[in-house]
Design goal:
The structure holds 2 protein chains of 2 kinds.
Chain A lengths: L1 H21 L1 H9 L9 E5 L4 E3 L8 E5 H26 L14 H10 L5 E3 L5 H6 L4 H8 L31 H15 L5 E6 L6 H12 L4 E7 L2 E2 L2 E2 H4 L14 E5 L3 H16 L5 E6 L18 H11 L1 H11 L5 H24 L19 E4 L6 E4 L2
Parallel strand pairs in A: 4-5, 5-6, 6-10, 9-10
Antiparallel strand pairs in A: 1-3, 2-9, 7-8, 11-12
Chain B lengths: L1 H7 L10 E2 L6 H10 L9 E4 H15 L3 E5 L10 H13 L3 E5 L6 H13 L1 H4 L9 E5 L15 H5 L5 E3 L4 H13 L4 E5 L7 E4 L1 H4 L11 E4 L4 E5 L2 H14 L5 E5 L2 E3 L3 H11 L2 E4 L8 H11 L11 E3 L10 H5 L5 H12 L2
Parallel strand pairs in B: 3-4, 4-5, 5-7, 6-7, 10-11, 10-13, 13-14
Antiparallel strand pairs in B: 1-2, 2-8, 6-12, 9-11
The chains are: A alpha/beta, B alpha/beta.
Chain lengths: 399, 353
Amino acid sequence: MLKMLSAILSRVLQRPAAAAAVGKTASRVMVASRNYADFANEATFEIKKCDLHRLEEGPGTTTVMTREEGLHYYKTMQSIRRMELKADQLYKQKIIRGFCHLYDGQEACCVGIEAAIKPTDHVITAYRAHGFTYTRGVPIREILTELTGRKGGCAKGKGGSIHMYTKNFYGGNGIVGAQVPLGAGIALACKYFGKNEICMALYGDGAANQGQVFEAYNMAALWKLPCIFVCENNRYGMGTSNERAAASTDYYRRGNFIPGLRVDGMDVLCVREATKFAAEHCRSGKGPIVMELQTYRYHGHSMSDPGISYRTREEIQEVRSKSDPITLLKDRMVNNNLASIEELKDIDVAVRKEIEEAAQFATTDPEPPLEELCHHIYFNEPPFEVRGPNQWISYKSTS
Amino acid sequence: MAAAAAVLRHLAPLGHRLTRIPPHGCAGGRLFQHRRGLRLSAPAAIQVTVRDALNQALDEELERDERVFLLGEEVAQYDGAYKMGFAGIAVGAAMAGLRPVCEFMTFNFSMQAIDQVINSAAKTCYMSAGLIGVPIVFRGPNGASAGVAAQHSQCFAAWYGHCPGLKVVSPWSAEDAKGLLKAAIRDDNPVVMLENELLYGVPFELSEQAQSKDFVIPIGKAKIERQGTHITLVSHSRLVGHCMEAASVLAKEGVECEVINMRTIRPMDIEAVEASIMKTNHLITVEGGWPQFGVGAEICARIMEGPAFNYLDAPAVRVTGTDVPMPYAKNLEDNSVPQVKDIIFAVKKVLNI
């Protein structure tokens, strides 16, 4: 240990001497490359106070973020952003077909949530699911390859955009609102197994008016299920604004007898702290809680919606310039000496490269073999024959 | 887990009321006979109602696997009907590793929850390429009851039987009820079990083998309830009983009907029907549901496509519910479901007697 210390010390002491010996060039080199030891390890940030419903107190208004956390959130959000933009591009090239609901603008939601829960917790969401698929552990390459419908996709090309799954992530669900009772059911299993796990059941501002959501609220509250109902309020349910769809737009209060929080969904730290608070509420056995994340999507509802017939370009531009979650984080990190602009630019370059390579794979991977058409109809079942388009064509089904 | 489990694991009312057929002779004598290796008395079969058989099955499976639990409308102490919500909750619980038995008060109510049954339960294994299984059982009374009119009398065998990813079973006897429910609970896939309210109170003989805690009936296998040579009657659920009655009436006239109890709607055991037709050369399907796009229509189509077609001496015929929403008045209701006389009439038509 002492030897190591003395070796480091002598190296440090030697540097200025070496620089002086070499002359001007050396000092220029030294100034250009900033030593990462120059950055702060962490910084304290102020976050917006959450509006509360049936709660005496809520999450705090300051939080600490380490440099490491910041870099991780930045890289993750940027990866999602670039992945979604790549999906947009591939869709326009007709390499992706069918459904494609993009998440760009909402990155802080899935990243903030994942930062506050454990891998052993559970998440279920609706169709705008690519961001969560990534934060829950599916590699970008497998997401893009699923979108292009190839055999290397995370669902082997069987599911597409809205049917992606992984351990403790239950999709990706196409029927509006149906995932909310499913989420309450997962929470029921969490309570039943007693391993202190919770479930995040996400839905949008449009789905928030669905009857089955209220059925799920009722049973979750009755049975004190450890379920966090999360409304990702991006202001529009397809083309219908909140005000035109809901008699009450206070989505965090719609759980009525269930406590609720309204959270700034564009700030990854605010989302993180609110989720930590909500998770603690559930784990302590108090029952469900509702979290409304106020967020925004830059794209239209899906790729067939330009997104400007029900909102103005100015509105979209204003959100981009004032509230973009990635820019917000970048500014915070740079202004608090947690990272440099160059370092973050390096991350951007690395992310772009990763997305390019993933897209390259996604467009060249072969389609799933026809022989596998009927696999996985049943779970854990001996093989059987499945009828094809006529009685002379049949496919084998294995589990 | 214990506290939560105690709250959530409810049994339907157990109240077993078993009627034992008294064995021959006194207990001592019987013992003597056993020691001697002679079995002079019949094995201890007992009379059990379908309701009790179902309760036994639930009881045994709840004890066998602690992941099994019940929820539903009017199950144990939870009053009230929150159809779509609780069906979704049940499916979610199954996705996360529990094994729910979700009871619908009748399958008519399942129409509200059908999205969860089909889109969340049936299709998820396929959509996730085998990652997520949904080991759930949906059970409840299906089809016509007595005097409950149009909104509470529909048969859903064709609706659920239509969908890949589901298994659909339809018990008739107490043995069917017990064996199929146990098999359904142990199956790792979503199973819809279509029971019949009018059968709940009917006693059937439950063999000693069927009384065992490990008695399961394989899903996807039909049973020949009665051997015959002149004509094949294929049915499911309550109407199997009608077929058996028709068969015993016809036997007096020298017509021997083979009665097949399908037991499973999907996957359908068409081979059993084919083998029977190759013997009898005549087919009648009998069901309670409506004729158009029904179970009988599917059986006839498959027979036409398969090897048994060449063995038919007459076109296959269907006996079904009348193509009308179920009326209330008793005489009208009686004529909206197949009666024994309708089956007998059809047999005579097909056999040209």
